[in-house]
């Protein structure tokens, strides 16, 4: 399990479980599913891939926003380091982000989660309007 450098080193999932703003929905091997308190029902999937931490949120089926895909891609500049994309396996619009685990500190990890949550807000307000 990858460790976050804090005053003492702590496994990433232990650190995520200690954050007050998130609820743990499920945990399995190298995957943690969580929800942010104010985004009930929106599952944030965090995968510890060893060298990299990968985060993905399935937002909706492509056909629901097909006429807004160009607008959706333009919004990517507002939510960096996360990005909107398409998961061809599920025909879904997704929000993804990743960060290298080596020398990872809590601010970088929380920053990625904040970017993901900002992306969810932007998607709901400006794409699903």
The tally of structural domains comes to 1
Quaternary structure type: single chain
- The CATH topology assignment is Yope Regulator, Chain: A
Name the helicity range. Answer: 25-40%
- Spans of at least 5 consecutive residues whose pLDDT stays below 50 are none
Radius of gyration: 15 Å
Structural class of the helices, strands and pairings? alpha+beta
Mean pLDDT across all amino acids: 86
| Major β-sheet annotation | 6 strands, antiparallel
CATH second-level architecture: 2-Layer Sandwich
* Overall morphology: globular
- Reading off the top of the CATH hierarchy, the class is best stated as Alpha Beta
Strand content: 35-45%
Could you give the order of strands across the largest sheet? 3-4-5-6-8-7
Order of helix and strand elements from N to C terminus: EEHEEEEHEEH
* Count of strand segments: 8
The number of distinct helices, counting runs of at least 4 residues, comes to 3
Distance between the termini: 40 Å
What does it look like?
This protein is an alpha+beta fold. The chain has one domain: Yope Regulator, Chain: A, CATH 3.30.1460.10. Helix content is 26%, strand content 36%. The chain is built from three helices and eight strands, in the order E-E-H-E-E-E-E-H-E-E-H. The strands form two sheets. The chain has a six-stranded antiparallel β-sheet. Strands 1-2 form a two-stranded antiparallel sheet. The longest helix is centred in the C-terminal third of the chain and has 22 residues, at 106-127. 21% of the residues are buried. The mean pLDDT is 86.
């Amino acid at each position: 399990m990858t460790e976050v450098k804090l005053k003492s080193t702590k496994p990433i999932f232990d650190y995520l479980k200690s954050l007050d703003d998130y609820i743990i929905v499920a945990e399995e091997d190298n995957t943690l599913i969580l929800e942010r308190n104010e985004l009930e029902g929106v599952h944030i999937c965090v995968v510890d891939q060893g060298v990299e931490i990968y985060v993905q949120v399935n937002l909706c089926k492509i056909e629901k926003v097909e006429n807004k895909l160009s607008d959706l891609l333009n919004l990517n500049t507002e939510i960096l380091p996360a990005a909107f994309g398409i998961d061809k396996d599920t025909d879904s619009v997704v929000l993804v982000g990743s960060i290298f685990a080596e020398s990872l500190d809590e601010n970088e990890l929380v920053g990625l989660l904040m970017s993901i949550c900002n992306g969810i807000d932007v998607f709901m307000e400006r794409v699903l309007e």
